[in-house]
Structures are given as structure tokens and as C-alpha cells.
Amino acid sequence: MPLAGIGSRFIAVLIDTLIWGAGLLILWLVLWILLPNVVAFSAQSAQWAVALYVFLLFVFNWGYFTLFEAFGNGRTPGKRVARIRVIQRSGRAIGLFESMARNFIRYVDQFPGCYIVGIIVMFLTDQHQRLGDLAAGTLVIRDRVQEAPVWSDAAARTFTAHVPRFETPAKEPHAAFSLPDNGIAKLSAKDLAVLEGFFARRLDMPLSTRAALAQRIADAIQAKSGLERPAGASVETFLEITSRQLRDVARMQ
Fold first, then answer.
1. SS3 string of 144-164?
2. What dihedral angle (degrees, nearest 10) is formed by the CA atoms of 129, 130, 135, 141?
3. From residue 45, how far is each of 33, 51, 52 by CA, in Å?
């Protein structure tokens, strides 16, 4: 997967900091309006109000990044604009635990300011990981841009040509096969996540790596489910059949 560089990550942090700063300003204004009334009530209440403000400041700073990344498919608003996201090193989506870990270490990466420690560590690691990424086992990658559909070779290529003719798309290879339902039933949602992770990444892999990984996944699927690859189906076609039927089972449940 294409790793996110320093520039795109800086843009994401800058946008997130502006949003976070606006929220912090609102929080400070609320405290500024309420504090005189609290002080008039009692001095101890004012101390509690200040302590609550400091606590909310920590929760807002830590929770902003943690919750957006955990429940936003690894993206904060800034990361969406910069077209980057956080994933696990295995290629799976980031969860709440990984998000909590990487963002708790964020305070160390920010030391002594402007993410100096984080930037230095990113330059020293092969996969541009800051300390939070190393602790949580995560990576920051660039989102793949969807390519525009390519017209058929039979389509017109000049301004004076007639209306282009589109060829009927060939039937998907996996649509011609099916697997026993009792074997599919032995697989789980985790197996489906592994399959979909492979499909999302395979176009970025060298052909030899792609073939070896597909074979390893197919061997694991067959060992767990007892399924056999249909005659005439390639390894990847077998995986596509399994994914399609497993997705249908999950949808019915």
C-alpha cells in the first residue's frame, strides 16, 4: 500500500488542529461565561470548575483523534481532506484499541512541540511510523483514487465518429461456480475480513507476492471449511466465490 508522506500528514494535522482549536475556543468561552457565576457561589466550586475544564481539555484533545479514527475508518476530518487513513500493519481496519494506543502516545510524539519527536522517528523508520504507530502496530497510507472507466476499443476515438458502441461485459469468472453451503457455514466474519483485505490490496502487489498470498489464504480457507477448489477455477476465483457466498450468508443473518 502507498504510505502517506510527511507533507500529507502535516496537512491532515493542520486541519485537525484548526478544528480542534475552534472547539477548544468554544469550550473556553463557555467557561469564561459561567466561571463568574460559579465563583460567586463559592470558591471551592470555582476550583472544581477549573479542574473540570482541564479534564475536558484532555478528553477533547485525546478523544477527537481517537474516536474519529476508531469509528471513521481510520480517518479524522483532516485525514479525509488529505486522502490518508490509518490501518493496522496487517492491512485490516484500525479498531478502538489501536486508536487509543496510538493517540495516547501522541503526547510523546508532540514533545517538545510541533511533533518534533514524531517527525524524527518517522524519518528513522522504513514505513514512516511515529512512536504511536510503532506502539499500536499501525500505518498511515494514502487512499487509492478510483480510476475512471476505460471505454472499449470498439468505441469511437475521433470527434467525427458515430455514437460509441460498448461491448457487453464478460461474465465474472466466479459467477460460473458455487460452493457447498455447509462448508461456507464453517467460515466466520474474520475470514471474510481477510478475503476483502486481500482483494483491496492485490492490485498493489507484485504478481509473485500476490499469487503466494492468494495460495496461503486459499489453503487456510480449505483447511478450515473442507471446501475444494472447483475444476477450472483459479486460486483467486476460488477466493472470490468464497467471499461472495460468505457475504451472502452474513447479509441473511
1. CCCCCCCCCCCCCCCCCCCCC
2. -40
3. 15, 10, 10
In tens, the pLDDT along 174-230 reads 556 778 888 888 888 888 888 888 888 887 778 888 889 989 998 998 888 888 888
Domain that includes residue 178, residue range = 173-248
Radius of gyration of the chain (CA): 25
Could you tell me the sign of the dihedral formed by the alpha carbons of 55, 56, 59, 60, in that order?
negative
Q: Do 238 and 121 fall within a single domain?
A: no
Which DSSP helix (H) or strand (E) runs through 116?
helix 116-124
Rounded distance between C-alpha atoms, residue 66 and residue 138, angstroms: 13
Give the other-Cβ count within 10 Å of 87's Cβ: 20
Grid cell in block for residue 213: 498470498
Same domain, 21 and 130: yes
Instruction: Enter the C-alpha cell of residue 24.
Output: 477548544
Sign (positive/negative) of CA torsion 142, 146, 152, 153? negative
Question: In this structure, is residue 217 part of a structural domain?
Answer: yes
b/e map 142-169, b = 16+ CB within 10 Å:
ebeeeeeeeeeeeeeeeeeeeeeeeeee
* Angstrom distance (rounded) from CA 242 to CA 192: 9
- Domain membership flag for residue 163: no
The predicted model scores a pTM of 0.53
